[in-house]
Amino acid sequence: MDLSLLSALNEERATRRAAILVSDMAGGGQRLIRWADDFTDDPLADELARRFRSGTSGMVERDGGAAFLTVSVPPPRLVLIGAVHITQALVPMAQIAGFNVTVIDPRTAFATPDRFPGVALHAEWPEDVLKTEPLDPYCALAAVTHDPKIDDFPLQEALRVGCFYVGALGSRKTHAKRMERFAEAGIGAADISAIDAPIGLDIGASSPPEIAVAVLASVVKALRRPMEVA
């Protein structure tokens, strides 16, 4: 491997940015495609989009020969805003599914190690936590406090950075008020419409564990859907 390409690939990995090393099996040439690149005109554009979403390396056949795609994507994160009963049920499910999970809630009566053992837990305001642990496109964010003072900032930040999933707990009436606040804050209608609210797949969930199942299902669905190539 070209050392400059190796260095560039390692830099992308270190900063949680996805990249694919394309190796021409016939000629031996290599090139690095970053997730943030505009690869619309690349002959492998559709395959690159699929691989960025699946995270799977492998051989691909194309006109003129075969290429091996070495895919490097960061492990998916699930950031949960609100240390509530739904979150208690959701954390172990998400960990089993392979997500790195973070729980954020400034309410110290809720965000306690006894209630959330074995998980990254921050009894701080989301604004403060996200300064040092920023969101990125390989993060999912679910806001479940019902308190706009806690939920609104991380939801807006998740939309700004392009998290692959953004969900918020609340009724349709609650979400309508949220949409008004976000519009007043200058967030576009297309971004606002990306919020999954009421949160989770519509499976008739009622109890906190059932709602947690619905949320996780929505997160996995969003993670695995084909990435659109602009």
UniProtKB/TrEMBL annotation:
Pfam families, per database record:
XdhC_C (PF13478)
What species is this protein from? Roseibium aquae
Query: Which protein is depicted?
Result: XdhC Rossmann domain-containing protein
Q: Domain XdhC Rossmann, which positions? A: 78-218
